């Protein structure tokens, strides 16, 4: 095998000095519950001090949201001083947001699964539910600055190492890649294929070709970064993240020296068989 780390056992993955903390949890539910717990605890801690909470949030992974919603409603956690800045959204061929009724719309998903499920007296105002806008790309970078920065960026890792839709681009130096802010871009074939399989029943020909995404810059400057991996192909992605070189050809590798980052994975991903 050209890259030895792809053959690392669970023990080797954890003990050969990975470039970021790797936390192994029993199963998908354990990973998602842990993410939901951290979301809720961060908000409660800030609420107690009268401070705002600012998250960058993904639609993938998404399993944390039902647990988060349940916790918010049960514990009566106010989100009135919370901002959810979603990472990205699919665009149509005119580079406009896909409609919320589109089965892949992240805006539609967040409304159905998160905002509409939280009790009205607890949920944040609509103007604090943010999505990158292809017609106002400066809005999120400026908003983050006005809010005093992002407390936690939650996310996953794509098959080519992308975080949000920050697709691999080996033509850029690492420094150039890390300077990229919110923008519109074309989705790579690899990502369209993986997302078609995972999210769209394999309907590759109907997968959107474009997206709008927050930049790696916004992610890298969050005070904390929390990543979760749980799919079968994440076995390779996790190993490259933990042991591969830092390169714009695998964007998450440019985040592994962040001061407060961890990667939560399942026992399935940590193993190489089964």
From TrEMBL:
Signal peptide: none annotated. One of its GO terms (molecular function) is isomerase activity. Keywords: Isomerase. GO terms for biological process: N-acetylglucosamine metabolic process. It comes from the Bacteria. This is Glucosamine-6-phosphate isomerase. It comes from Blautia argi. The lineage of its organism: Bacteria, Bacillati, Bacillota, Clostridia, Lachnospirales.
